[in-house]
């Protein structure tokens, strides 16, 4: 997921350097826990900055009372390429580290493929049981635990909200990355569309350079709005997607609030900052001796609707009062 923008106050002061610099400065003893960060975005960014992949996780550690003198960090990045996650995970395993932390399901699969012994703490976008990452939510077993924001009804809910915002909606474009086709979102969206009587223009986008043509195809297919399915590459392109949506006059429903902050019309999602923060709890329990397989995988209980009124005006859309009353966040 794309990191949520927010300041980190005291933590930002403590961590206003990149992780390579932190690691070089640490005097790691045999008793200092070593946390491996399996990143999709580059490791060389300041990890307490507002664009950090692990910023809220670091805030969570800080809130639990940890300091840099008590922990050691190693970061390995896939450099924005899912295909490089496996090699990055193997690097962390070979060091080794005491626990691996990731912020996405593709990274979780890579980590679990690299080790069945080192604990893994992660955010999971799909169904962890169906994906083979856990035996059950209550008792994951194995070496992986964390938070999942998956619910089969999310695809239908996003479509329903889009239909309520755009009366008469008949055809919806869909942006999906075939690299993560093993995730359940395409299937869920197709099933929801059939149930709601909406036609889909499904566009497979595996590289940022394919977005322009995908929008053109959606428009040619008669799409009146579009859904963006969960994927890290697409999340990284949220600003570009927002600009293309304005250019092609296609209202967007996305899966993360940062899309709305970047100019897309709507998003319906769990709070990713809260989920990232919660990963620190799992790491704390594991470092204190609890086995990851004994820590239940949690699910968010609240999902928020975000809308961008400036974008609505640019698209010439007057959002119904019913939608505005449901919105938890309104950008004006």
TrEMBL record:
Domain of life: Bacteria
InterPro entries in the record: ABC_transpt-TYRBP-like
Keyword hit for Signal: yes
Secretion signal span: 1-25
Sorted UniProt keywords: Signal
This protein's name: ABC transporter substrate-binding protein
Organism phylogeny: Bacteria, Pseudomonadati, Pseudomonadota, Alphaproteobacteria, Hyphomicrobiales
């Amino acid at each position: 997921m794309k990191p949520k923008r927010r300041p980190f106050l005291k933590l930002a002061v403590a961590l206003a350097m990149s992780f390579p610099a932190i690691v070089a400065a640490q005097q790691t003893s045999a008793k200092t826990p070593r946390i491996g960060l399996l990143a999709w975005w580059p490791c060389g960014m300041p990890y307490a900055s507002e664009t950090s992949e692990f910023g809220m996780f670091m805030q969570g550690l800080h809130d639990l009372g940890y300091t840099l003198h008590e922990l050691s960090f190693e970061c390995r990045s896939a450099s924005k390429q899912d295909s490089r996650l496996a090699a990055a995970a193997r690097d962390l395993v070979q060091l080794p580290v005491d626990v691996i932390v990731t912020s996405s399901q593709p990274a979780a699969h890579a980590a679990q493929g690299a080790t069945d012994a080192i604990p893994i703490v992660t955010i999971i976008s799909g169904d962890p049981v169906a994906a083979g990452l856990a035996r059950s939510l209550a008792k994951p077993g194995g070496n992986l635990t964390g938070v999942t924001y998956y619910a089969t009804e999310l695809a239908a809910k996003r479509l329903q909200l889009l239909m309520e915002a755009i009366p008469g909606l008949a055809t919806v474009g869909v942006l999906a990355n075939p690299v993560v086709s093993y995730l359940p979102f395409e299937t869920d969206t197709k099933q929801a569309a059939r149930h709601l009587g909406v036609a889909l223009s499904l566009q497979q986008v595996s590289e940022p350079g394919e977005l322009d043509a995908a929008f053109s195809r959606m428009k040619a297919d008669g799409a009146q709005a579009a859904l963006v399915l969960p994927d890290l590459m697409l999340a990284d392109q949220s600003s570009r997607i927002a600009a293309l949506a304005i250019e092609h006059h296609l209202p967007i429903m996305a899966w993360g609030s940062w899309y709305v902050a970047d100019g897309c019309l709507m998003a319906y999602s769990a709070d990713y900052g809260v989920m990232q923060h919660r990963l620190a709890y799992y790491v704390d329990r594991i470092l204190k001796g609890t086995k990851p397989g004994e820590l239940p995988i949690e699910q968010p209980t609240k999902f928020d609707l975000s809308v961008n009124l400036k974008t609505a005006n640019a698209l010439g859309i007057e959002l119904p009062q019913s939608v505005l009353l449901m919105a938890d966040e309104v950008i004006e």
